[in-house]
Design a protein that fits this description.
Strands 1, 2, 10, 11, 12, 13 and 19 form a 7-stranded mixed β-sheet that branches. The chain has a 7-stranded mixed β-sheet with strand order 8-7-15-16-17-14-18. It has a 3-stranded antiparallel β-sheet with strand order 5-9-6. Helix 1 packs across helix 12. The protein folds into 3 domains: 145 residues, FAD/NAD(P)-binding domain; 145 residues, Guanine Nucleotide Dissociation Inhibitor, domain 2; 100 residues, Guanine Nucleotide Dissociation Inhibitor, domain 1, CATH 1.10.405.10. It is globular. The chain contains 12 helices and 19 strands. With 441 residues, it is α/β, with parallel strands linked by helices. The chain starts with a strand and ends in a 16-residue tail after the last helix. Pfam families: GDI.
């Protein structure tokens, strides 16, 4: 490791692999290292034997699951991609889509008064949903018409609401929407993480709702996509991209120390070797003295033999349980996939229930989601700490990614990628057209 690199990336989580690929494409000399022998970091995908070894060492694997090791590829942290979202734009821009095949998630649901229902987006769905009365349906229809017709440059479409200045709360009040309707609009469509969005300018939520609608219009059943064979296909895709453009990968490589000189990163030490570099990008596990713990996520990986009830036997769904429906400060997320996504044997389903920890009994906090799953074969419950960088990295050239949150979609991951890219490169990430592959020049 005598060469000097522009950037050394530590950890093969998705955020790190995306940045490694993007920087390699831009001509940066990149060395990518991971202490693990597999891709994905804390977001890896595991087979049944690995799941039991990790979460229930010594416990006998149930008979019905034995012999299916190769058919299980279970994500530790599931994420769905919005069809028109930032993550898909990154995939198209980098051409990583050539390495990974995606399949649509069959349904997008939300929880209301102890039951779940499809998120109504189209006029037909609004009319058919049983969750709201006729008067509220008319108000919701008017709201959607306003959203779809709104043009920033045409005041006549504003109905007296400039979305750059009025709050989202004021917009809801204008259409006299009920609290439950506001909940699914804010949390199931706009994917807001909490209710603080109500007091921010409405343009933010408008853009998020429009993204959901645009993604829905692409395929019809839901706005979400998921890669066949699980999420660990994605870091590997970006690793291939990096390699094509000259990036060097070292898995199963010990990382002993990030080396500094005069308060700035100058390299990474592994055994007796030091790889020199100008900047380091890493996940929080490689720089524990430079991060702050900001919370915890509790997740339950659940194996079932049936689809989630009241989803029209969907082979895959996302369910969002809005915080207020279960007297919480944070939403609960359920992501469920099946053999149709090549992540488990035929006749099995995998669901992951997750939320931000609020009490001293994290597993209990998942109960509203677990109740929706019905009978299960087995479950694996674990709590992960959430870390955020203590500083932005520009003073010492160490740039740290955020830990994965409880959400079951990629939107927050993409926010972190774009934020890190800007701090590392000094400019916004723009994705115009498609990159030219190194082997096609």
């Amino acid at each position: 490791m005598d060469e000097e690199y522009d950037v050394i990336v530590l950890g093969t989580g998705l955020t790190e692999c995306i940045l490694s690929g993007l920087l390699s494409v831009e001509g940066k000399k990149v060395l990518h290292m991971d202490r693990n022998e597999y891709y994905g970091g804390e977001g890896a995908s595991l087979n049944i034997t690995q799941l039991y070894q990790k979460f229930k060492p010594g416990q006998e694997i149930p008979e019905k699951l034995k012999g299916h090791d190769r058919e299980f590829n279970v994500d530790l942290i599931p994420k769905f991609a919005m069809a028109s979202g930032e993550f898909v734009k990154i995939l198209i821009y980098t051409d990583v889509t050539r390495y990974t095949e995606f399949k649509q998630i069959a349904g997008s649901y939300f929880y209301y008064k102890g039951d779940i229902a499809k998120v109504p987006v189209t006029e037909k769905e609004v009319v058919l949903t049983s969750l709201i009365g006729m008067a509220e349906k008319l108000r919701l229809k008017s709201f959607f018409e306003f959203i779809q017709n709104y043009d920033e440059n045409k005041p006549e479409t504003h109905q007296g609401l400039d979305l750059n200045t009025v709050t989202m709360k004021a917009v809801y009040e204008k259409f006299e929407l009920e609290p439950a309707t506001m909940e699914f609009l804010g949390h199931a469509l706009a994917l807001q993480l909490d209710n603080s969005y109500l007091d921010r300018p409405a343009m933010e939520t408008y853009n998020k709702i429009m993204l959901y609608m645009l993604s829905m219009s692409k395929y019809g059943k839901s706005p979400y996509l998921y890669p066949l064979y699980g999420l660990d296909e994605l870091p590997q895709g970006f690793a291939r991209l990096s390699a094509i453009y000259g990036g060097t990968y070292m898995l199963n490589k010990k990382v002993d120390e990030i080396v500094y000189e005069n308060g700035k990163v100058i390299g990474v030490k592994s055994g007796d070797e030091i790889a020199k570099c100008k900047k380091v990008i890493c996940d929080s596990s490689y720089a524990k003295d430079k991060v702050n713990k900001v919370g915890q996520v509790v997740r339950a990986i659940v194996i079932m033999e049936h689809p989630i009830a009241n989803t029209d036997n969907a082979d895959s769904v996302q369910v969002i349980i809005p915080q207020n429906q279960v007297n919480r400060k944070n939403d609960i997320y359920i992501a469920s996939v099946s053999s149709n996504h090549n992540v488990c044997p035929k006749g099995f389903y995998v669901a992951i229930v997750s939320t931000i920890v609020e009490t001293s009994e994290p597993e209990k906090e998942l109960e509203p989601g677990m109740k929706l799953l019905g009978e299960i074969v087995d479950k694996f419950v674990y709590v992960s700490d959430i870390y955020a960088p203590a500083n932005d990295g520009t003073s010492d050239n160490l740039f740290i990614s955020k830990s994965n949150d409880a959400t079951s979609h990629f939107e927050t991951v993409c926010d972190d990628v774009k934020d890190l890219y800007k701090r590392v490169v000094g400019k916004e990430l723009t994705m115009e057209g498609k990159v030219v592959r190194g082997d096609e020049n």
